[in-house]
Amino acid sequence: GNGDVFEVRVYGEADLSASYRVAQDGTIDFPYVGRVEVAALEPTQVADMLSERLEERGVLTSPQVSVFVTEYNSKRVTVTGAVGSSGSYPISQGLTAHQAVQLAGGTSEMANGDGAILTRRVNGVMRRYAVPLDRISIGTAEDFQVRNGDIIFVPERAF
What we know:
Number of helices: 3
Strand content: 35-45%
Distance between the termini: 44 Å
Shape: elongated
Helix content: 10-25%
Order of helices and strands: EEEEHEEHEEHE
Structural class: alpha+beta
Oligomer: single chain
């Protein structure tokens, strides 16, 4: 998506291997190929397309291209409640619920870490999941990956 960053590696071609940020129009400018539409494509699809275009233009014979997403700026998780800095944060590959809370400055002193809730849309239906942050921290509960559009709310403790 727009704003995402990915690494392109062309085997044996250091000059063609670099990082690219997807522009607002969903494209990148790739050497010898020009402007390429990459928005909404999977990394393997981008790699295949770049490989084909490099070969079609006679730049390389049978190029081996790999693409690895390093920043998902178009995909975000919202963290709110008793955290250091509520907000919307980009999802990097493999980002977990616990890590997302850490991006938001961690929990405040008033937080009920084991009372955190993740809200996610699944097949058009809003679902809520318990996120026992304190138990995840000490290894007695499993952490899990966040998805685009997830909302994590950390409530304050009741006294």
